[in-house]
Amino acid sequence: DTGVSQDPRHKITKRGQNVTFRCDPISEHNRLYWYRQTLGQGPEFLTYFQNEAQLEKSRLLSDRFSAERPKGSFSTLEIQRTEQGDSAMYLCASTRGGAVYEQYFGPGTRLTVT
Amino acid sequence: GIQVEQSPPDLILQEGANSTLRCNFSDSVNNLQWFHQNPWGQLINLFYIPSGTKQNGRLSATTVATERYSLLYISSSQTTDSGVYFCAGREDTGTASKLTFGTGTRLQVTL
What we know:
The structure holds two protein chains of two kinds. By secondary structure, chain A is an all-beta fold. Chain A contains no helices and eleven strands. Chain A has strands at residues 5-7, 10-13, 19-24, 31-37, 44-50, 53-57, 65-68, 75-79, 88-95, 104-105, 109-113. The mean pLDDT of chain A is 94. Chain B has strands at residues 4-7, 10-14, 19-25, 29-37, 43-48, 52-56, 59-64, 69-74, 83-91, 99-101, 105-110. Chain B is globular. The termini of chain B are far apart.
């Protein structure tokens, strides 16, 4: 298996701009998660997909954030009108599903909003 | 919500020393995982250990679910072991939902 991949690895943007991140899960993993990690903290859950259905969203996911997984494979996370507080590492994880819950993480996208 | 707590928050070891990292978690947490986050931010899976004991080289982990704790043992530490160690658990709601992470143990191994 190739691992979870994310693109881009780094993104610097100016406040107010929109950004989009992509996550490609491990093939045949039907569950995909997005997390956000700020400096000195553990990752915090943002949202979860089973196949193409978005089944859970955190209160952290404000209305400026949207996530999609249109064909149940890759996923995108878009942040509109970025704010400096959005600066963080955005992590994607996937798991096979069924009774298997072990999550595997991608390398992350580090966002800096100036 | 569920609680996951790790100790110690920071640990400095000399190369070759052994260490034990602890993770306490609240009721209804299961499917515990241990991760090592390297300096580039990548979370590397160490153990998926809902209960029992597992070993992988110099690392081993034990989870006692009935007492709601897990331990990660690192033996003969090396400088490459440096980084942040996280434990994370899934809430036992019957659905495949999110992991809740502890705040991590930052380990520095010196020569």
